[in-house]
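input
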Amino acid sequence: MRDYDVNETVEQPVEMRGYDRIPEMELKQDYKPKKQEILREYEILIRFLSVGCVVKVGCKEIPFRSVKEAMEELNKYVDNPYEEGKKWHELFNSED
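output
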């Protein structure tokens, strides 16, 4: 077997091992889990207070001044967990 010099130019093209065969469209698409998969990901608990409530999603707790506001946000999340989850992740990560 021949040793190659790092500065030596390789004359034969390097095989991409299948990556060149993946259509460009597939490379650009993000995996989007199904709605039910996302909803099962985190346990959701609601703790009602004298005024408002706290919604716990996974390890995060979100206080709301009113139960109505909490239910509106929770309904948005249940209706579209992928987009709403991205919104909340950005909010949580921006405060670190």
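quick obs: The first strand starts at residue 44 and ends at 48.
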